[in-house]
């Protein structure tokens, strides 16, 4: 047994992922059928003008054939981009087996540390020995990942140099919406420069916001939410056992609430906030707090001073007044940074002389920053900022990303809500008990060993990429559809990345980007949640899903998530 593998890992290394029928005989025995020309989801004329060489390509469907297609040795480079997601190693394994099945001498290069490895020409050759150590494992540690954006001509030209040096036939970028936007832009640049190398994308993100009719789910979502749901179920069991704590649990998902919704469907918490619904209803922070407080008081009246609340990571950006505050703060801190820093430094020096206490200095620092910033934002935003807890104020004022913007993911939303609910309970003269625990489940799920579904799905995505490489399909993303019908009925193919794109304002400029898929408030998963949440709020309808099952009957170990099953009427 490898020193890096547990007993379970050693056994899982021998798992043979299942493939769709069209891929089982290898890439050379796949017949491709093409659909009609496509167009982008929005801003068609702008996207077409930006991608003249790759726009409008058809959707591709793979079909099995007995007629062996011609193949030749392939040199392929692979990049892991963005945050980790369970199953990434199996995507690489699918690519590896796919190109080796075409010609055994084909070579797979892994660029180290994400897109920067591609730009800088840092790579390793992935051989059978290395690949065997990572099959069916979590993480991206085979070549690591990175968040470098590919957006400058200088970067693109360096990519061309690397592609020519290694005589690459294809570069496969495994990533989310931003990463695959990079893939589309690079594919267009290569086509314009007539580079003999295609660029292909694979859909990855545990947030679940990279999806459409042909990308039914992004890989990693299934495993990550099952991992979180196990933890949530454990906490629900504890809450129901001790009956003395309210647990506020923040879950990953800054741009969409797919993780929170799926976790709620799997565990039936007493409260689950859906950011998209809050935005749709134009709820204020006060209204959100009041709705949570109502449930807490109602449960307390029935002698239930405990419960579980799920909170999406990006909640505050969906609250209209908070979104305005963040935008105004970004502008204020960008345009008046020197003034703010100068005034703050003076106050720090005064506090240091008068008190010499670090905590007082920090509190003074937060208060001073707020006071100065409020001079440069609207009256409504200033009122909201001043009424936030001091630690949240400090996070909003101090934690900036490289572009100078508020790092919303670092704002402890769960603690914010606990403090504000506590304050609201005091205003209502609440006589019950309200003891709390706060949690954030994020990194716990990103590198979990993939579920059978993700192991199979990811391997199929990678294997499908080898077909796209063989047929020189530039600017495409791999697609596996019909996912709830069993792998025997999965449909493999590819879709042009440009068909998912629109134009959005990013950092003051119009940029072509893949449109994020938010929770559909008219969709069946959300409607099912709405039908049952009042019932879950009142009682203890908790579900305890337990750990991911890798062995056993298919209805246990191969089952996918509730979101997919509800969307495709497959929930029995």
Walk me through the topology.
Blueprint: H1 7-12, E1 30-37, H2 44-50, E2 58-64, E3 75-80, H3 88-102, E4 107-111, H4 115-120, E5 123-126, H5 128-132, H6 153-165, E6 170-175, H7 177-192, E7 198-203, H8 221-242, E8 246-251, H9 258-267, E9 271-272, H10 275-280, H11 285-301, E10 307-312, H12 315-318, H13 320-335, H14 337-354, H15 358-373, H16 379-386, H17 390-398, H18 413-427, E11 436-441, H19 443-446, H20 452-470, E12 476-481, E13 491-496, E14 501-506, E15 509-514, H21 524-538, H22 554-557, H23 562-567
Parallel strand pairs: 3-4, 3-6, 6-7, 7-12, 8-10, 8-11, 9-10
Antiparallel strand pairs: 1-2, 2-13, 4-5, 12-13, 14-15
Helix pairs in contact: 3-20, 8-9, 9-21, 11-18, 13-16, 14-15, 15-17
Note down, in words, how this protein is organized:
The protein has 572 residues and is of the alpha/beta class. The chain folds into two domains: 19-220 and 450-506, 3-Layer(aba) Sandwich (Rossmann fold), CATH 3.40.50.450; 224-445, Phosphofructokinase domain (Rossmann fold, 3-Layer(aba) Sandwich), CATH 3.40.50. Helices cover 45% and strands 15% of the residues. It has 23 helices and 15 strands. The chain has helices at 7-12, 44-50, 88-102, 115-120, 128-132, 153-165, 177-192, 221-242, 258-267, 275-280, 285-301, 315-318, 320-335, 337-354, 358-373, 379-386, 390-398, 413-427, 443-446, 452-470, 524-538, 554-557, 562-567; strands spanning 30-37, 58-64, 75-80, 107-111, 123-126, 170-175, 198-203, 246-251, 271-272, 307-312, 436-441, 476-481, 491-496, 501-506, 509-514. A hairpin with a 2-residue loop joins strand 14 and strand 15 (509-514). Helix 9 packs across helix 21 (524-538). The model is unreliable at 358-363 (pLDDT under 50).
